[in-house]
Design brief:
By secondary structure, this protein is mostly helical. The protein has helices at about 5-45, 45-70, 75, 80-105, 110-130, 145-155, 160-175, 190-210, 220-240, and strands at about 140, 180. It contains 9 helices and 2 strands; from the N terminus they run αααααβααβαα.
Length: about 240
């Protein structure tokens, strides 16, 4: 094989790698579009469609990370900071829009709604900038600000507003406690269970939103079971294996 041919093959391989890496960035950026679509539905009070778009954004967020690592975006597409891009979109879809929905829907009436929207947005802004967000095993250090998941479950089961207020307050405090929350893709321990659980949660979330949170839908029970696992699996690991973070 001639040197020129080898050089051409190497160049083509490099261009392919760069193209794939930038395509992943473009995929991540679609989350901003889905966030806008969700916000437009929220302003109109169409909570079911708002959550449909948030679930779509959640799926994109779930797949772009593994794709980014596979395509080595830091090497082949370094001009765009994928971590920063992901955090910007996550704040919109995980925090800002769900907090608005919780406030505007009336699930937390009066001062409780103001309390929730202020606590969620303020605490999450600090958490997303925390350099200790991840633990040594790539889990989350404290509740990872997944308010989209929390608020969707609250919409589905509609508990007493005092219960909702307690859940919001407890999770906001948990963002800054040495409590472990598993990452469905990157936490290796129990991943064979956690990954199906998060896939099931996504399915039940989409189902619940599609039927407009009908109170007799079985999707609600699926949301409760999967949410309990995703919330407490990390804590159980800390207890069983005496982990410190």
């Amino acid at each position: 094989m001639s040197l020129a041919l080898k050089s051409r093959i190497s160049h083509d391989a490099s261009m392919t790698a760069k193209t794939n890496a930038y395509l992943v960035h473009l995929l991540t950026a679609t989350g901003a579009v889905f966030a806008m679509l969700a916000m437009l539905e929220a302003v109109q009070g169409d909570w079911a469609m708002m959550f449909v778009w948030l679930v779509v954004a959640f799926v994109v967020d779930g797949v772009d990370g593994p794709l980014a690592r596979k395509t080595e975006v830091k090497t082949y597409a370094p001009r765009i900071d994928g971590v920063l891009l992901d955090l910007i979109i996550d704040y919109l879809t995980y925090v800002f829009i769900p907090a608005f929905a919780l406030f505007w829907s009336g699930l937390l009436p009066g001062w409780t709604g103001w309390f929730a929207i202020i606590v969620i947005t303020f605490a999450s802004a600090l958490y997303f900038a925390d350099t200790r967000m991840k633990t040594k095993d790539n889990s989350f250090h404290g509740f990872p600000g997944c308010w989209n998941m929390v608020v969707l479950v609250l919409f589905a089961i509609e508990p007493n507003f005092w219960v909702s207020l307690f859940i919001v307050s407890a999770l906001a405090v948990a963002m800054f406690l040495p409590v472990k929350f598993v990452h469905p893709f990157r936490t290796e321990r129990w991943r064979s269970v956690t990954l199906p659980m998060v896939c099931a949660w996504t399915f039940f979330a989409g189902w619940a939103a599609w039927v407009e949170f009908h109170p007799e839908s079985w999707a609600h029970w699926g949301l409760i079971v999967t949410s309990l696992w995703l919330t407490f699996a990390g804590v159980v690991q800390q207890i069983l294996y005496r982990e410190t973070i």
